[in-house]
């Protein structure tokens, strides 16, 4: 979505912040961080800034509901729980912010960029606003056709989901066709966007399942609307791949500041991709079989552990390398 990065220009991550001798948290270090943030904002295209503002606003809505949830208490389950506006605000906000940043590495014209950013912002804003308003009214948002208003709001929500899926699919295709990102980040972006697409597919699975139950006169207030088979959690199958993009992109971002050779960075990102794919596979597998997300040491536990280890190894390597570089500076061979 950014027109500033042209294919014939060398792609690079934003330059790492200076590493002064003062300990973290000193005025000099904090000044460097604010300078980096201002530079990052100044380099962003107008439509990226729009998406950043929308994403930040949605996160604030999620945090506000989290605070109210902490003050008032209540369960995390059910269609009227504080969990729903909290997670919707945080999740859609993070997704909007991430897609806006990822757009830096996709060479797209300005007109297309504004169109895509506008569609994405409208879709994510509606989803969070709809859930928030319905929660405030004390009625469920999803699968609620109790009144004509509730039904129209639900239909509009489904339309906005389709819009968001279209944007994500277009960005995924663009990322695989051409991206100006360095190899490790390009790998993270492509597989992260694929994970986000898988999350949308599992969301459609949940939607169709819920509509079938509504057609059978099921109560939308029941938690079973998202239960597949005996105990499979469609919400779990939706949530696990949803944030692959954040995990993988943050890992690539850290590795870019590690001083490690780019080939090794790419291998570490690839290892993390394999680990995350394993976690998604276990989540989808257990759900499709009607099994609860976790169980005490069954055959699926090995899949969880293996995926977690494959994710943890690159993360530890990245953090260790960044820490060593900040303490001692680059080695002579670098």
Quick rundown:
By secondary structure, the protein is mainly α.
Query: Residue share in helices?
Result: 55-70%
Spans of at least 5 consecutive residues with low confidence: 1-28
Write down the overall geometry.
globular
Total beta-strand segments: 2
Biggest sheet strand line-up: 1-2
Q: What's the N-to-C terminus distance?
A: 33 Å
The radius of gyration is 21 Å
Query: What is the subunit organization of this protein?
Result: single chain
Helical stretch count?
10
Give an account of the 3D structure.
It is a single chain. The chain has 334 residues and is an all-alpha fold. It has 2 domains: 39-180, no CATH class; 214-334, no CATH class. 69% of the residues lie in helices and 1% in strands. A two-stranded antiparallel sheet has the order 1-2. Helix 3 (83-102) packs antiparallel against helix 4 (110-137), helix 6 (183-215) packs antiparallel against helix 7 (234-242) and helix 9 (262-288) packs antiparallel against helix 10 (301-328). The radius of gyration is 21 Å and the shape is globular. Mean pLDDT is 86; it is low at 1-28.
How are the SSEs placed, and which strands pair?
Layout: H1 27-43, H2 46-72, H3 83-102, H4 110-137, H5 148-177, H6 183-215, E1 227-228, E2 232-233, H7 234-242, H8 244-256, H9 262-288, H10 301-328
Antiparallel strand pairs: 1-2
């Amino acid at each position: 979505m950014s027109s500033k990065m042209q294919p014939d220009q060398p792609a690079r991550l934003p330059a790492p912040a200076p590493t002064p001798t003062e300990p973290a948290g000193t005025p000099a270090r904090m000044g460097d961080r604010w300078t980096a943030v201002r530079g990052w904002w100044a380099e962003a295209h107008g439509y990226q800034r729009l998406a950043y503002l929308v994403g930040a606003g949605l996160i604030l809505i999620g945090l506000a509901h989290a605070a109210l949830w902490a003050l008032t208490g209540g369960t995390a389950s059910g269609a009227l729980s504080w969990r729903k506006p909290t997670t919707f605000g945080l999740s859609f906000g993070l997704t909007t912010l991430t897609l806006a940043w990822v757009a830096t590495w996709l060479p797209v014209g300005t007109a297309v960029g504004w169109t895509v950013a506008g569609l994405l912002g409208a879709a994510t804003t509606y989803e969070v606003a709809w859930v928030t308003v319905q929660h405030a009214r004390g009625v469920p948002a999803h699968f609620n056709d109790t009144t004509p208003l509730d039904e129209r709001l639900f239909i509009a929500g489904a339309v906005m989901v389709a819009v968001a899926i279209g944007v994500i699919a277009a960005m995924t295709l663009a990322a695989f066709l051409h991206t100006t990102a360095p190899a490790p980040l390009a790998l993270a972006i492509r597989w992260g966007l694929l994970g986000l697409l898988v999350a949308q597919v599992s969301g459609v699975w949940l939607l169709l399942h819920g509509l079938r139950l509504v057609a059978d006169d099921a109560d939308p207030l029941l938690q079973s609307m998202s239960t597949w088979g005996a105990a499979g959690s469609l919400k779990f199958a939706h949530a696990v791949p949803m944030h692959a993009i954040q995990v993988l992109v943050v890992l690539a971002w850290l590795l870019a500041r590690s001083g490690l050779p780019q080939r090794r960075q790419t291998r570490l990102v690839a290892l993390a991709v394999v680990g995350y794919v394993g976690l998604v596979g276990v989540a989808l597998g257990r759900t499709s079989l009607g099994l609860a997300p976790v169980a005490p040491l069954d055959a699926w536990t090995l899949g969880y552990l293996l995926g977690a280890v494959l994710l943890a190894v690159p993360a530890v390597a990245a953090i260790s390398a960044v820490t060593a570089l900040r303490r001692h500076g680059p080695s002579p061979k670098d």
